[in-house]
Amino acid sequence: MENSRKFYFDRVRRAVVKVGSNVLTKDNGLNINAIESVSRQISHIADSGAEILLVSSGAMAAGVRKLGLPKRPDEIPGRQAVAAVGQAGLIMEYEKAFEKYEKKVAQILLTGDGFTNRKRYLNARNTLHTLLSWKVVPVINENDTVSAEEIKFGDNDNLSAMITLLMNADILINLTDIDGLYTKDPRTCPDAELIPLVSAIGKSVEKYAGDIPGALGTGGMSSKIRAAKKVTAAGIPMIIAKGEKPDILLRLFAGEEHGTFFVPKKERLANRKCWIAFTLKPKGRLLIDKGAAKAILEGGKSLLPSGIVGVEGDFNLGEAVEFRNGDNEILGTGLVNYSSEDIRSIMGLQSDKIMERLGHKPYDEVIHRDNLVVTGERSEVRGERNL
Predict the structure, then answer these.
(1) β-strand 171-176 against 238-242: which pairing, if any?
(2) Residue 262: domain span
(3) 318: domain CATH number?
(4) What pLDDT, on a 0 to 100 scale, did the predictor assign at position 211?
(5) Does 36 lie in the same domain as 121?
(6) Which pLDDT score, from 0 to 100, does residue 89 have?
(7) Local confidence band at 207 (pLDDT 50, 70, 90 cut-offs)
(8) How far is CA 310 from the centre of its chain?
(9) Among 300, 305, 363, 303, which residue's Cα sits nearest to residue 334?
(10) Does residue 71 or residue 253 have the better pLDDT?
C-alpha cells in the first residue's frame, strides 16, 4: 500500500534527519546522551547502506554552557557570538560520538541566500554528494553567526526541507520533543489526539499546528508543517516523531508506526523545479483568471498574458514570482520572461499583440511551463482521523 510507511522506508536510499533543540539540549547545555543516541542510530542505518544527512540544532545551547552564561543572550549580536562559540563544541561532540562507530563527520554551515544563487546551490550539492560518497556524515546547521533573521525566527525546519530537496532525498525525518502532530498541544491539553497520517495539507492541519508552539519559543509545529508542505509537494514523504523515544530512528526504518507521517504527491519534482519553487524568494505576484488556472493545473500549460488580471510588486525578467487565483490562493511559482512593468502593459492581451504593445516579443509566454511549478492545491487535509 502506497500510504504505508514500510512502502516508503523500503525504498529509502538517502534520508535527511533533523534533530531539534528541544531534543539536543538540557537546562545546562547540550544533551550528550541524545547526541550519542542519534549518532549510534545513524551509524547503524548507514552501515545498512543508506546515506544520512543530519541537520542539527544546538549550537547556542553548547555556547551558553561553554561560556558559563545563565541563559541565551537576548540581543542578536550576543546570540550570534554564542552560536559561534557553541558550534565548535557541538561538532566536537558529534565527532566523538560518531568515532565510536568508525564514522567521520563534516561540519556544513549554510545560509538561505547561498541557495538562491544557482551556482552556489549546485556547489553545495556537489560538496554534499562528495562527502556521502566518502561515507562521511554531513552535520548541517544554519550559519547563525551571520544569519540574524535565522536566529530570530529559528529556521532549521526550513533548512532541513531545503537540504531534502537539494539532495533529492527519499524521506525527511523531523525529530522533536513531542510524538507528532496533535489536534491540540499535548503538553497542556489531556484530550489532545495524535494525528498519525496526513495525506494532504490543508487549513485544518495548519490550524492544529498553529496551536502548538515550540517549547523554546522558536519554530514550533507550524514551521514543521511548512517544511512538510514543501517536501511532500515535491514528492517526498516526511515524518514528525519524538526524538527522545528509544531507538526511534531504527524503529522508523524498521517500518514501525510512530509519530505523524505526511504522504507525498505521487510524482517527484525535478531538482531544478524544486529550486524554483522552494528555494527562490518570490519577488512579486501575478493574479490569474479561472481559465489560466485551469490550463496550468489541469493541462500543464504555460502562463500567457491573456490569463493575467493583476500584477503586484516590482521585479525583473528572470526573477521568481508567485501566481494566485481569484481567491488569492497560491497556485505556484515560476520564472518570468518579462518585467513587472512589461507585464502590466500586456496583461489580458493575446500573445500575438505583445509586439504591437511593447515593440518587441522575445516570448509568447509570461512564464513557460518548463520554468513553472504548481505548489498549491485546493484539497483539504485527510488522515486516519476524520479531519
Answers:
(1) parallel
(2) 5-269
(3) 2.30.130.10
(4) 57
(5) yes
(6) 87
(7) confident
(8) 29
(9) 303
(10) 253
Angle at 250 between CA 247 and CA 255, to 5 degrees: 125
Residues paired with 142 in a beta bridge: 110
Q: Per DSSP, what are the bridge partners of residue 52? A: 15
Q: Do residues 180 and 237 share a domain? A: yes
Cell numbers 539532495 correspond to 167
Residue 41 — pLDDT band, cuts 50, 70, 90? very high
Considering the domain architecture, whether residues 24 and 105 belong to the same structural domain is answered as yes
The rounded distance, in Å, linking the Cα atoms of 178 and 288 is 41
Tell me: do 66 and 192 sit in the same domain.
yes
Residue type, position 6, single letter: K
- In total, how many domains does the chain have? 2
Is residue 38 located within the same domain as residue 137?
A: yes
CA atoms of 233 and 192, how far apart (whole Å): 27
Query: Residue 347 corresponds to which cell in the numbers above?
Result: 496583461
